[in-house]
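Notes to self, Divalent cation transporter:
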Amino acid sequence: MNPALVTAVMALAFCTVHVFVGRLRFLDRAPRSRWLSFAGGVAVGYVFLHILPELGSHAVAFERAIGLPPTLSESWVYALALGGLVLFYGIERALKISRGDRRAEEGRDRPEHGVFWLHIGASALLIAVIAYLLNHREEATTGGLVLFFAAMMLHLVTADYGARREHPELYDRRGRWVLVAATLAGWFVGTRLVLPPVVIGGLFAFVGGCIVLVVLKEELPEERKSYFLPFFAGAAIYSALVIGELHLAV
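result:
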């Protein structure tokens, strides 16, 4: 089967999450839905068993492309991961502050429109990179692609649900279509443009940092009343699948 066709179907599946996450009524539960905790566990499992191990190999690409010593090259790779985490942390803080200020001044439990669109813009950048990486991963096996897709699909459920919760009206009216456009654009660029290995490594590192922050932001706050066992189950099941796939590839 044509690989581009397979990844196109996967990109369209990502788009269905953006469009229809508001209709997943089983997620709208108090306390928090166990499915969201499960999805968070899978996403974290992906980061620790796929992205972090691959950063070492990408550090070699940095070393060759930039001519830095091995230790310094590795530090740059992890600095990019930290950059992704810090970027989304800053946006989440801006959302929280804006929401609190508007609640105090206007009685509306919504962030300012500009801050919300900053959040959507950062999320669009992240999903564009994820869609691009559908066609350009370090591990180009079928099993690796399926695991990447499954982990990112569940991550998007968590991330999009959180984005919509901030401002449902704006998300449903325009925000979700921005994310759809970013997904399709990222996939299309991935079919036409092959970036140097050093850039691919940087993108992987950036995605890893972003996912860690998004997942922990959704799982850790006390008011979310998240669940440990579903989170653990998601991480454990995904870890077992990854390790099994690696054993079969040996």
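- The two ends are 24 Å apart (CA to CA).
- Residues 35-249 form one domain.
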